[in-house]
Amino acid sequence: MNTVLVGGSPIGDGHPVVICAEGGINANGDVEIAKRMIDAAITSKCNSIKWQKRTIDVVYSPEELSRPRDSVFGNTNGDLKRGLEFGKEEYSELDEYCKPRGFTWWGSAWDEASVDFLAEFDVPCFKIASACLTDDNLLKHHRSYHKPIILSTGMSTEMQVDRAVEILGTDDLVLLHCSSVYPSDSHHLNLNCIPRMREKYQIPIGYSAHEKGLATTVAAVALGAVFVERHLTLDRTMWGSDQSSSVEPQGMARLTRDISEVEKALGDGVKRIHPDEVAISKKLRRVDTEKLEG
Fold first, then answer.
1. What is the radius of gyration, based on Cα positions, of the chain?
2. pLDDT per residue as tens digits for the range 44-55
3. Bridge partners of 5?
């Protein structure tokens, strides 16, 4: 199975699970909140943080943008979407905040202009959201930059994933199993897709999680996920549509710890006597079959 190198972190079998804090829109359009989220991701021992980038008037129809929706930014859905969006000035500030900390960031671009925007910052990879998986032209535009791609596969059939993989190719590609229900319940998750995808595509398979608890995300690692993405928030009670399906800093720290413990516990699958078992074996076993066989 191929290994994909992203921001100095190898993604694939035989390497530590790479954990990305999904910042998304949880900063609520506030750069200072975004900086605190970066700090929390670093403290929680995440490998990176990811944001979203959209050209609002391209991604949403005029009818959708004019739809009434109350928010701190105004009374329409367009007011909300534009208020949440970071521009060049904000991304430059966040980029400069990450650099001296040696911390990696990237983004998911929902349209071609947003891909170009992120490319100006020389991000180490592109993330493609589940909602964009069927946009052939957008997939091709991402690939034209010849950067690693991480593709979420929520709300998609196996045939749709096959087509996306055919367009992108398998070089420098990581697929993420995902449920696009926010927040997801356990019956939405279908985690057994992870070993199936590993066998079928023979490329690194990860997991993009939207559930409330941590146990099922850890289970995804036990099933073979080599990359994990979880939404990060400073406070799940904050205003915002994604906050309730996100993890607070203390929860993210527990998640990274538990994933590390599961990795240690998985081992290499070869049944053998552990050196620490030898003395116990001598104490408790009456018959040593190895001696008998010799």
1. 21
2. 999 999 999 999
3. 10
Which residues are CB-neighbours of 16 under 8 A, at least 6 positions away? 260, 263
Structure tokens at 142: 């991402």
Domains of the chain: 4-293 (3.20.20.70)
Distances (CA, A) of 39 to 107, 223, 253: 17, 30, 12
Side-chain half-sphere of 233: how many Cα atoms within 13 Å?
A: 18
Helix, coil or strand: residue 235 = coil
Where residue 224 falls (left for φ over 0; alpha for ψ -120 to 50; beta otherwise) is: left
For 31-182, where are the alpha helices, taking DSSP H only?
A: 31-43, 56-59, 62-66, 77-84, 88-98, 112-119, 136-143, 158-168
Q: What is the pTM of this model?
A: 0.93
Q: Residue 76 is encoded by which pair of tokens?
A: 């329409």
Q: Beta strands 9-11 and 4-6: pairing type? A: antiparallel
Strand partners, 24: 51
Tens-place pLDDT, residues 66-107: 999 999 899 999 999 999 999 999 999 999 999 999 999 999
Beta bridge partners of 4: 11
Closest CA to 87 of 124, 114, 68: 114
